Structures are given as structure tokens and as C-alpha cells.
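Support reply, case 0932

Customer input (verbatim):
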Amino acid sequence: MPATAKNRHNICMKTTKLIKLCALSLSIFLLCSSVATAEPMANPQPQQTYTNQDILQQLMKAKIVYLGETHDSLEDHQAQLTIIREMQRQNPKTAIAMEMFQRPFQSVLDGYLAGKLTEEQLVEQTEYNQRWRFPWEYYASIMRFAKENQLPAIALNTPSEVTRKVASQGLDSLTAEDKKYIPPISEIRTDNAEYRQLLLEVYQQHQKAAQGNSTAFERFLQAQVLWDETMAESIAQFVKANPDYQVVVLAGKGHIIYGYGIPSRVERRLGVGNVKVRSILFRSPGDTALSADKSIADFVWKHSQ
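Our regenerated output:
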């Protein structure tokens, strides 16, 4: 194989592996703890290499900034705090939107930020350890910073019990009570063919017993998209109600890559082109996969810098 073709092949393989790992991490978490057609998100200057300082300057121009994390990466969370600190320094009207908290517990977040609840009460009353399960210390510093600087924090996520019910029984099984904290069913759009194909490949590889069961996959897809749509609705509602704020979104990278998950669904609600957004993924030294396809996100933050 010629060198150029071989390089393209290697890049393709790395990108495919990354996408599947991102989607798989979401899928496993969904099943254990439990659209409008989206175009791939374009990189503003795909040929250019940005330093972390360059990235920070670029973010100041955006209304919404997506930080696609690996949930169990301490380095990712430290970088998130660095980015939030700098954004808040330049714009005190910065809000933090968090996948880690579910929508029924917004009042608990508000109580903590207002000084009415302790950190221990925040963890207990949001049922954080039961509903998210990753170590609290990953996010503790971010929440402390939000409290110290009076930054709004937005609980984005679907209640776990609702997501699990959709994964096992489908959207049609939901009761009026189940629908209290999710968008209208008509807004839960599964018509992004590329997203569907990505999730189908992951599903077929990791749910061997269910291969060929189209009903089971449709329910899995509905649950995944419900997750995305609920978070997108939460973000869009905040932006509409608080047009002078910048919003930093903390979510798993599988919800961010190519704009398939959250970003395209926020854009659908706010109007295509009406709000400037930027997305970041994180990369550790020696991890070359993220450089394989720059359209996967706008920027790649390098932990070594």
C-alpha cells in the first residue's frame, strides 16, 4: 500500500476506534445506570494548530462552549476548571451546564449555590452517587468555583429511571409523570442517519445477544437520543432566558463529537446560525487518535501544555 494511502487508512482506523469508544462509553453507562438531520460540525480553521492559549481566546467569541470529557479522566476535569476560570475572568456572566446532574434536582443546585446547602447535602440530595457514580471529587472543584463566583449551574440530564424505561420499553411506554422532565415526544428526533449508523455499529458489536432485534435497537436509540434532546432543551431554555450569558457545557464526548448529540439539537431550538458555538475534546500526551479527523470537534485541548 503506498505511504499516502496507508496513512489515510491508519487515520480512518483511529477515528473509527475513537467514535466507537465514545459511543460505547455512553451506551454502557446508559444501560447500567439505567433530530433534526445534523451535519458534521465544521472546524473553523481545520488546517491550523492551536495552542491551549489560542483556544481560550477563541472561546471568548462563543455563546455556547462544549467541553467533551472522558468521565473518568481527572486531567479532563482539571482542564475544564482551567477553561471555566478563564472564561469567568473575562466574562463574569458565565454559566455551567452539567450532564452530571438530572433535571429534577435543579432546586438543589440552586440551594447549594445560594449557600443554603452544604456540599455534603448537595451530593446527598441530588442522589449524585446513585445517579452518576463517578467520584465526586472530579466535579467538586468546579462546583466550589461556581459557588464562590455565583455562577449558575444547570442540571441537564434526563432522570435515570426514565432513560432506563425507554431503553427497555420504548418512548410509547412513558406516562405523563415520566414526561415531566423531558421534551415533548415530537421533539425527540431519531432521523440523523449518520448518528443512527454509528450507534447501530456499537450496539451490534457489544450487544451480541440482541443482534438482529430491530425493536431492541430502536429502543436503545430512542433512549440515547432522549438523553441528547433533554440536555439540548435545558441548554436552549437557559440561553433564551439569559441572552447575556455564556454557557459552558460539561458532557461526555460521545454527546459532542461531530455535533450529532447535543450541539445540533441546541441549534435546532435556537435557530441555525443564530448562536456561535465552539466544541473541545481533550487529549493526553501520546494520544494521537484525536488528531485523525479535525471535524470531530472545533479544538483539541492538549493536557501536556
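We compared this against your earlier run and they match. Two observations from our side: DSSP finds eleven helices and six strands in the chain. Residues 34 and 101 are 15 Å apart (CA to CA). Please reopen the case if you see a mismatch on your end.
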